[in-house]
Amino acid sequence: xxxxxxxxxxxxxxxxxxxxxxxxxxxxxxxxxxxxxxxxxxxxxxxxxxxxxxxxxxxxxxxxxxxxxxxxxxxxxxxxxxxxxxxxxxxxxxxxxxxxxxxxxxxxxxxxxxxxxxxxxxxxxxxxxxxxxxxxxxxxxxxxxxxxxxxxxxxxxxxxxxxxxxxxxxxxxxxxxxxxxxxxxxxxxxxxxxxxxxxxxxxxxxxxxxxxxxxxxxxxxxxxxxxxxxxxxxxxxxxxxxxxxxxxxxxxxxxxxxxxxxxxxxxxxxxxxxxxxxxxxxxxxxxxxxxxxxxxxxxxxxxxxxxxxxxxxxxxxxxxxxxxxxxxxxxxxxxxxxxxxxxxxxxxxxxxxxxxxxxxxxxxxxxxxxxxxxxxxxxx
Length: 380
Fold this sequence. Notes:
The chain has 12 helices and 8 strands. The chain is α/β, with parallel strands linked by helices.
């Protein structure tokens, strides 16, 4: 998952790297990101020079079919020799190098062109039960009076990562879907256990519906996008909206979502050593966010056993080398059984966290384009 303090080892002159993934000096708290809101938006919709990306060493035993660019990112991540996150506290884990920072280093080393963003950013704090959370709002600079809205939930197992580490994905959706993106800094475990993050994310969606006009947004055209834990949160928010009688999102994009609590799936069994996410790390995330095993069976966590009827049309994006692959495929099947239109695609040769790396990975560029196209179709 994406965390880290990697940029402190590099001079500030590496502007492309800073702008692409933002200067991540450790994991900011959920209410401590507004100071960077005006300087982080750069899109990642170009994957130039990827033909030159070749790993130095043989591909790992667990990932013989990784694409060369993906293997280069994983090789860079491994080169940091960071301790396993499972051996650390959540607070320590948030300071470790991330896949985003590995991709950022690859961009610098290979002098990969990163086009400028066409979105402005601003910060907003909103009240939630027991405190407040921070939103980062991306607004396209295309001069329209009103835009559709995407509420975006970042990954990190509900435990690590922040708005900065997932900036590239949120910014790409603002640019490619031409929508106002509201990126949500929900509170995380173990400081805030289940269902705090889920309730925070629902509150952010409710805020977006009620306040869309204040951010140049169309309240009737609001979609949800989330990665990993954020994919779980997006689907859970749709379920909560349905059950509360709240306006439903018009669409949702779930990128390698956490969708189950079954460690015996085929992909879990294949993922003892996968990077950046392994079966053991997923269990560590659950232990840090859930209060008990019973929470793992809650439909807001175990989407594959939940009632999915009446949820919005969905796109699900999967990665080959990912413990969550099997449950993402099962979730797609269950959507179909529930009568929910779904567009599912598995990207072979990729790992968990590939989606935000469009400047490096052709598959990420394709996945972002697919997500944006599906969103734009729904907004029409």
